[in-house]
UniProtKB/TrEMBL annotation:
Residues 8-132 form the ApaG domain. HAMAP family: ApaG. This is Protein ApaG. Pfam families: DUF525. It comes from Erythrobacter litoralis.
């Protein structure tokens, strides 16, 4: 299946692309649980070798509740990207509402050790609507 990247942001030559999909098989609306999977591609279009150090996510649900998630690297890795290289990974996000959004930033270390903050684009999380107008799996 060819992935369609729906959202992108560019910071200092580094492009972050996001494709997001609702997973009905992992969701249980009757229990107040919805789940999305997202595929991220980070492309180093700069002239420097960069190492991804940390991530920061701002996850908002349909009630306006905001959850900040900070951590080392992505899915247990701190990839090093030479100019022209890219890194792909897949992760997931559960919510207790059928709609929400995610956005954030990565912090990279440049070759000289100085930090570079790279924006992750805003992207919506939306469960499909059922015939009666309710969001469901």
């Amino acid at each position: 299946m060819k992935e369609l990247f729906q959202h992108a942001a560019v910071t200092d030559g580094v492009t972050v692309r996001v494709a997001v999909n609702f997973l009905p098989e992992q969701s249980h609306p009757e229990a107040g649980k919805w789940f999305w999977v997202y595929h991220i591609r980070i492309e180093n279009g700069s002239h420097e070798t960069l190492q991804l150090r940390t991530r920061h996510w701002r996850i908002t649900d349909a009630r306006g509740m905001v959850n900040h998630v900070d951590g080392e690297g992505v899915v247990g890795e701190q990839p090093v990207l030479s100019p022209g290289e890219s890194h792909d990974y897949v992760s997931g996000c559960p919510l207790t509402t059928p709609h929400g959004s995610m956005e954030g930033f990565y912090t990279f270390a440049k070759g000289d050790g100085s930090p570079l903050e790279v924006r992750i684009p805003f992207f919506p999380l939306a469960a499909p609507e059922t015939a009666d107008g309710r969001s469901s799996a």
